[in-house]
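Async update (no meeting this week)

Hi team, since we skipped the sync, here's where things stand on the single-chain job. The sequence we agreed to prioritize is pasted below, unchanged from the tracker. I ran it this morning and attached the output directly underneath so nobody has to dig for it. Comments welcome in thread, and please keep replies under the output.
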Amino acid sequence: MRKASRSIPLGVVGAVSALVMSGCASADDVTADCVMAAPDGSGAYQIVDDRYCDGGSHASYFWYYGGTASNGHVRGGTTVRPQNVNITSRSGKYITRGGFGFSKGGGGGG
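Output:
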């Protein structure tokens, strides 16, 4: 008994490979806010100037990623620094470029 073999055109394999690789290399954009370490009574964090978070973590301030800002406070994000994304502070000072670990500028997370 012989098994039939199907061939896949080389162009299809190349197109699928390119599609998969573009998905791996693409990066989302995430906004970071420098915030006071203790949330307020509603669970939101008070946004402070980026300079308090420049150069890394501090006991009183840290970067807060994602979330929605309103009236000088942010909520709905995370203190865990996301990987393989473009991170920019709302003021544009803090930038990390995503994809395969390449980064430039900015300080660490909290």
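Quick observations from my side:
The two ends are 64 Å apart (CA to CA).
Confidence is low (pLDDT under 50) at residues 10-26, 100-110.
Reply here if anything looks off.
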